[in-house]
Amino acid sequence: MRWVRWLAVLPFLGMLGGPFFLNRVTPLVLGLPLLLAWLVFCVLMTSVIMGVIYLCDPENRTDGTGREAGE
Asked: Residue 35: which domain range?
């Protein structure tokens, strides 16, 4: 489980390192400058990754009765 939590580092690294490589106006992506499109993509990927981490966390599993498995 611990290795899945390391996925949360990816959007941070994308937002931190993206401006060094993508600081251009062209090409436009969906009408947005490339850097802004990259940052929007990183924000969306943050939500996806947090969802994956949530689903992989064994503490969030239930036993079918609505109670947590450990109860």
From this structure: 3-56
Q: Report d(CA 59, CA 71) in Å as an integer.
A: 11
pLDDT tens, position by position, 17-47: 888 888 888 888 888 898 899 999 999 999 9
DSSP 7: G
Tally of structural domains, the chain = 1
Report which of 35, 18, 17 is spatially closest to residue 26, judged by C-alpha positions: 35
Cβ-proximal residues to 61 (8 Å cutoff; 6+ apart), any chain: 68, 69
Decide if 70 is inside a domain: no
Does the residue 66 lie in any domain? no
Structure tokens at 25: 């106006």
Q: Give the Cβ contact number of residue 25 at 10 Å.
A: 10
